[in-house]
Sequence to fold (283 residues):
Amino acid sequence: MVEQILFVLLAIITLGSALFVVTDRNLFHAALALMVSFAGVAGIYITLDAGFLAMAQLLVYIGAISILIIFAIMMTRRLMQAVEMPFNSQRWLGLFGAVITFVVLAVVIGRYWPIAPSADTFLASIPAVDPEVMSGSVARLGVSFVNPDAYVIPFEVASVLLLAALVGAIVVAWPKVEDKS
Amino acid sequence: MIPLSWYLILGAALFCIGIYGVFARRNAVAILMAVELMLNAVNINLVAFWRYLTPEKSTGMAWAIFVLTVAAAEAAVGLALVISIYRSRDSIIAEDMDLLKN
Fold:
């Protein structure tokens, strides 16, 4: 029961601030709400026994990506001025599409994994696992990143991708050099 | 006890909020923020399936980490593009970015 209340609270925080992100007129407030939403997702990870991911979420999303977004907002907009219309002409079509997508997903999910919690349905609660298996999950994750039979190639590709993104971001955002000739 | 479907519904709802943001927002930075929400929804699904179905393997966590990496790279390049376009066109409204039109 406590778990359920905690989950519902985290879900309300996450979804409420996510709604704020996509509807608020002030972009700076939307970015702050985005940080709250990321924190809610980190809490969801903790309820799933993925503490390492929750910490990575805090570091990467809240610590890096949100700050980057706030920098971009501050550099591109004359802050605290009345913004023009934040939504385009397809907003109702977009709302319709999003609601339809959600209904379809919810129906499919409800068909395979019933939403009402009862003890006998498939995967009605988080399966109990030997605590040693859970405490070793981060160690296994680290080994699988350097194991040739697991994820060493995606791992290296990810590092090249980050390097390319670093160089690309600098090149793209570099001020145009005036042609001296 | 929390059924798996609750996590999936949460992920679906977050994803659809992101879809709405991508469709309806005019500001390019706001669109990027909505994309980040969608990536988070995907990660919730990955971690939930990992915990419920294969907690003894590292597959779900590993892919969640890769999604995190790609999201960081995407944010860096996307925001650099936004700043570059702001410099040259003095606007970050997505509809004004029509260089390839005509």
